[in-house]
Amino acid sequence: MEIEALEEIKTKVHLALPFTMFEKYLPRVLEWGLSLEVGLDHQALDLYRIRDFRHAASLLKRQKIKCTVHAPFCDISPGAFDGLVRRASIKRLQEALRVARYFEPEVVVFHSGYHPGYHRERKEAWLDLVKAGIAEVLALAEKWGLCLALENVFESAAALLTNIVEEINSPFLGYCFDAGHAFAFAKSSWRPWLEAFEERLLELHVHDNEGHWDDHLPPGRGKIPFEEIFKFLVEKGRRPVVTFEAHREEDVLPGYLYLKELFSKISW
Fold it and tell me: pLDDT digits over 161-215, tens only?
């Protein structure tokens, strides 16, 4: 990668990197000084010990690498109708927070677990359960001073998430907006989501697609109008954390270069 090309933007954008890939990529991240979103998925939490997380966090701190954390999301459902699944999901998220605190993250991103196939016909019951589940997780986050950002995935409209966040009404709970998820799954433009999330927007996920699936293309390779999104945030005076979720190594540099040009154009 042409690290010189990233000098102006490397601290403005966090690169999503699963902890399970740290062994391969962390030396380069440290060399380049990239900000990170540390992915704590189920594999990371099962395969590694606390000492491993603390060691990695110490390396990042020594290099003054800014961090956010993404909590586990695969199979996680803090509002599950099945009580056993719900308890396991809450426990897993709490476990992730215990690890996340070592990285001193600006934000910890997590998902509601909403799935239309399971929850659409019983939304009100699901909302009651997920609010209670998130409140349990949030209590631990507040204890350690961690800010949580609830990310949209399969939700059909922003109201499903604003119902949760606004009722809980904690200074430690806000939103992460993912335009790629809104475009591919909700078949929606970015505007109604950002208008709803604006006051509590903590993070923005950047990746592109054609509107058919969550392809995680680099920005500029799909149909999502990122210039409109960032201009809206500039006009509103909002500067959330920006995380680029690249799924392929070869997409990292093109994504950063696109954002570098865009940020220069709109004075981000």
Answer: 999 999 999 999 999 999 999 999 999 999 999 999 999 999 999 999 999 999 9
**Host H or E run for residue 35:** strand 35-39
For residue 135, report the phi and psi dihedrals to the nearest 5 degrees.
Answer: -60, -35
Pick the CATH number of 3-263 from 3.20.20.150, 3.30.950.10, 3.40.1060.10, 3.40.50.2300: 3.20.20.150
- Per-residue pLDDT tens for 111-122? 999 999 999 899
Q: Count Cβ atoms within 10 A of the Cβ of residue 4 and give its class: 0-12 exposed, 13-18 middle, 19 or more buried.
A: exposed
pTM across the whole model: 0.96
Beta partners for 177? Answer: 204
CB 11, CB 35: distance < 8 Å: yes
